[in-house]
Amino acid sequence: MDIVQVIALIFALLFFMQVIFFTSRNKLQDKQAFLWIVFGIISLLIALFLPSINKFAHYIGISYMPALIFMVAFLVILNLLIYQTTVISSQQEKLKNVIQELAFLKKQIKDYIKDKEDKK
Question: Where are the coiled-coil regions (predicted)?
């Protein structure tokens, strides 16, 4: 195991521990935590099999292995960004519905109180 692989393994372990820490502190919901745990496991596997990834990069014609890693990381991050954007959009729609329902209920309460006062 060379120094680059050791450093990659240390960073992957730190990333994985950070995900576990945030999950245990309830800063990540289980659904979101699962996704990050999968990424943590993948990063650990990449760190462990770095020489094999280098051979694979050369096999497919990429002479500089970090270029392959950056390309894959970019695609993964782009997909994660799209997923998070859809989650945010869904949450915004739910929030809008809750706000409208709250406004409707407040109006009903206000009208009810007004009717009670008018009857007195």
Answer: 88-115
The identity of residue 7, as a single letter, is I
Collapsing DSSP states into helix, strand and coil, what is residue 29? Answer: coil
Number of residues in the chain: 120
In this prediction the pTM is 0.68
d(CA 110, CA 25): 40
Contacts of 103 (CB under 8 A, 6+ apart): none
| pLDDT at residue 60 greater than cutoff 80 | yes
Q: Give the C-alpha separation, 31 to 86, whole Å.
A: 14
Q: How confident is the model at residue 36 (pLDDT cuts 50, 70, 90)?
A: confident
Alpha carbon dihedral 77, 83, 85, 87, in 10-degree steps, equals: -140
In the DSSP assignment, the letter for residue 2 is: -
